[in-house]
Records
---
Amino acid sequence: MAEKIIAVSAGREITETEFNEFLSKLPEQQQAYVATEEGRKQALTQYANYFLFEKLGYDKKYDQDEAFIATMEAVKRELLGQYALTQEIKDIQATQEECEAYYNEHKAMFVKEAKATAKHILTETEEESKKVLEEIESGAKTFEDAAKEYSKCPSKAQGGSLGTFGRGQMVKEFDEAVFTAEVGKIIGPVKTDFGYHLICVDELTGGEQSEFAEVYPQIMQQLTTEAQNKKYMEVRQAMIEKYGLEFK
């Protein structure tokens, strides 16, 4: 089936396939616009203009200007260098066996981040904290109501809720108490530099080992990148030994 011709610029036929390829290489922020009818028409005009001005360049022999030739040489040097490197590393990819071995040797790296969802009540003294705890345990007040009434932390407006946070985000004493707590059980008073806390952990997640299948893509990318970088350095060193490199 013959290619659909959508424009002819300076005698150059522009096919729908090549134009779509041109569109696909535009920056991501332009993709939504060129997907519209108006945007597509404007992009086609831009693409057609390349051939008009290319023709102008040949007509006026701008392609023979020294400045143009120097620019083309610089562009060629950069593109050829990039292409050569790409060719050298294109077939380098970590194997599944290598990834599995890395996973088994570095399992500690693939433990899911521990997170907690908790609420607290902050008081200035231990006595105040114990008194609030008694009220909650007696059923006189819920934890949330007690937080709104007694807590010195801005979280009191949310019933003491601190939302969800990861291990190490809170001060040491608070962090250790939360991540060793029994879910749903009030603990404290816990002393920190801020005062005394009553803490209730609503949920604890993470801390377990990730399965190999979960982290395989991550390991594959890491090992492949490392192998490609190693190849790059080997090729570079070989070229230096063959042709030399000296900084003045």
---
Amino acid sequence: MNVKTEIPVYDINNFREYKTQGLVASRFGHYAKAHAHLHSPHRHSFYHLVFFSQGTGHHHIDFKQFEVKPSSMYFMIPGQVHSWSFASEPDGYIINFSKDYFSNFLSNNTYFHNFSVFSGIADQQVIEVDEDTAAAIVESFEDILKEGAVNGLLRDDLVRSLLLQIFIRAERASGHKIEVTANSYNHTIFRNFQKLIAEHYTTLKLPKEYAALLYITPNHLNALCKDIMGVSAGELIREQVILEAKRLLINLDLSIAEVADKLNFSDHSYFIKFFKKHEGITPEKFRKSNILQHGK
């Protein structure tokens, strides 16, 4: 990717591999050779899962770097920015599925909220599995690929069931406790808070503004954020602003002042101070370091 362009967003319909009702399933080696965009920062409008059986290198998720190695798994949710760099030839499996792929299969439309691997928090979306778990996951991937070659009875439902098995095995291997109370009152509020941040981070910067939209007190919002995520509501808002700033800084056609303006900072010098305070470097230095990592 020419880093002077905006980060591209790929839709599942951009891909021609085995696809049925919003699903793409492929061996990763074939997929990587067919899609050069993997090596440059990009986003998806769909969910994305990769399991490596071989290969080494690095994976950047929302500007955090993770190691690529056999028996490692990577989960992505729509909107996250990522890129790959490989030191040796990779292989394994890749699954892309649309936001509504499970909508007619699961009665609980918040089911994925139970899984830390779909949290959108990069550190929780990269896991390593043991030998037995890897063998079971590989078997499920192979069965999915076999189903893609035939049009058997209830094929799509079987594929969805196999995918759910992979998610559950991965979640168990992650060591994170599945949050069985994800549909509780506080968790519902927290998920709504996350959605509101994603929608209004440029205009609403204070926890009390979000608390008002959620019809709760700022203290209640702060308490549930600390209980669920271990950080304050204000920190979650700032993290979203910083992440979006990084995504904008990738675009060299935008000046630092224009990035600040898009994030609704009235003074670009204040934006520079804000960014440096929370990242330890200036926006310009972040931009230059990103060019060294991804520039062509």
---
Amino acid sequence: MDSRHGFVAVGLALALAGCNAVGAPRLPDPQLSGRDAQFMALVPTADVGAAYERYLVDFKTSEPPGSIVVDTKNKFLYLVEPNGKAVRYGVATGQEAYGWTGRAVVGGMQEWPRWIPPKDMLERWPHLQPTADAGGLPGGPDNPLGARALYLFENGKDTLYRIHGTNEPEKIGQSVSSGCIRMRDIDAIDLYGRVKIGANVVVI
């Protein structure tokens, strides 16, 4: 985890970037084919509001291009681009009791990942035990991990936190998850196509 000063610096950058989507270009959706086109025709859709659409925005940060910065307070994820720019996505974040902040790296990436309920979730919701016993839920339109998942690692170990799609897009902009960062599936697909294994992730 970075120093407090590092997080303050990132926070100041976010404060400047949070409102600057006015007049910023909205980025087009990625082109879909194969399984993506088949599944995306079946996933739920929702109007998330203009603020949570995908934009190219001005963004000043010391993080190198290719890094991901998540602003849990304002519900934005920024993918740092060269020349003081970032791609900004709307997200849903963890409820206060389950929120996570810190530094990590992208240690794994999967398309339409299988979902296995984690232990802490099984303790809260025992009705999910049959899903875990069956080896999880295969990837698809009904899977809560959505179209893509980025697996966050810290010091070489899986944190069990993810950046992933969602089958509940109406909750983008809210604090609803068990700590993971949720995105609209189309945004998760877009981010997946831009990110590489080993990318830095800062969650504040």
